């Protein structure tokens, strides 16, 4: 594919034809490919956007470009596409971030502030800069159009606080079980009670309840475990909790189960549990029961 005169002028106005200015050296290309592999679906946000151009089936074959000719081909695909001018400008703005020329370009063409922020957010997430991405997404009038991928990206990289803020400020619809699951389990890391209350309004709440228990126990969250034993639970929730707590012979699991049995008046079961386990046999809770003459 060759550039005509008009396209050539536009191309050199955007980029540079000097070899020393070409930013996509081997290290940069390898880094971008590595970042792609770190995405949940093996696709950068650039790839998702680029695939909206009808003729593009494998966006990863075009970005990052390996040579000036590859860059020209990428430019031609965007320039010749049926997408509107503003979307084309957003593609160029993203690419020019690799060149360190995006701000100059955006100011020259008066790219709307909300579109700058949106692309900045996608670029930041592509480079796994999570807090920076969130700052861009929370700017006024920015409407991220891939909320599912954003949520999953935050969650898969354990950026639970950023995910919670994104949901609470952007308010994307949590209309699938997966989105509800991600938000509930992220919320559990910061407020177990809030996560429990949200769980009640979700699809498959019992599945989420089991997930909540594992999050709290596996993170050794003793404060939340104290809350668990005093919650007003349904019979099904109790059965799931006892099953989970009985699944491991680890101190927090055993302590929480013992406390729950005592809290719910199942003293005989509590004593049986404590006497059959060396760890609990030395537990201050069991010692207190013995001092009261309960065994």
From TrEMBL:
GO CC annotation: nuclear pore
Name the record gives this protein: Fungal protein
Keywords: Nucleus
PANTHER family reported for this sequence: ELYS PROTEIN, PROTEIN ELYS
One Pfam family it belongs to: ELYS
Domain called ELYS-like: residue spans: 43-247
Protein's organism: Schizosaccharomyces cryophilus (strain OY26 / ATCC MYA-4695 / CBS 11777 / NBRC 106824 / NRRL Y48691)
InterPro entries noted in UniProt: ELYS/MEL-28_NucAsmblyFactor, ELYS_dom
Subcellular location, record wording: Nucleus
Chief location bin: nucleus
The keyword Nucleus is assigned to this record: yes
């Amino acid at each position: 594919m060759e550039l005509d005169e008009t396209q050539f002028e536009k191309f050199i106005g955007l980029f540079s034809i000097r070899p020393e200015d070409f930013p996509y050296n081997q290290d940069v290309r390898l880094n971008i490919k590595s970042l792609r592999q770190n995405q949940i679906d093996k696709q950068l946000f650039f790839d998702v956007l680029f695939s909206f151009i009808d003729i593009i089936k494998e966006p990863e074959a075009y970005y990052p470009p390996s040579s000036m000719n590859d860059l020209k081909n990428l430019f031609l695909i965007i320039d010749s596409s049926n997408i509107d001018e503003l979307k084309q400008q957003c593609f160029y703005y993203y690419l020019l971030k690799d060149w360190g020329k995006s701000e100059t370009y955006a100011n020259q063409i008066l790219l709307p502030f909300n579109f700058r922020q949106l692309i900045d957010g996608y670029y930041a997430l592509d480079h796994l800069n999570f807090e920076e991405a969130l700052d861009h997404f929370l700017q006024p009038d920015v409407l991220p159009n891939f909320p599912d991928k954003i949520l999953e990206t935050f969650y898969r990289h354990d950026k639970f606080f950023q995910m919670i803020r994104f949901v609470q400020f952007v308010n994307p619809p949590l209309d699938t079980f997966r989105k509800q699951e991600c938000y509930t389990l992220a919320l559990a890391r910061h407020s177990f009670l809030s996560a429990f209350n949200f769980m009640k309004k979700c699809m498959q709440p019992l599945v989420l309840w089991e997930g909540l228990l594992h999050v709290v126990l596996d993170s050794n969250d003793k404060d939340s475990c104290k809350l668990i034993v005093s919650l007003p639970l349904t019979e099904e929730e109790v059965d799931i909790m006892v099953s989970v707590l009985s699944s491991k012979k680890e101190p927090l699991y055993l302590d929480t189960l013992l406390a729950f049995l005592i809290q719910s008046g199942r003293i005989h079961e509590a004593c049986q549990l404590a006497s059959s386990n060396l760890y609990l046999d030395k537990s201050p809770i069991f010692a207190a029961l013995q001092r009261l003459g309960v065994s």
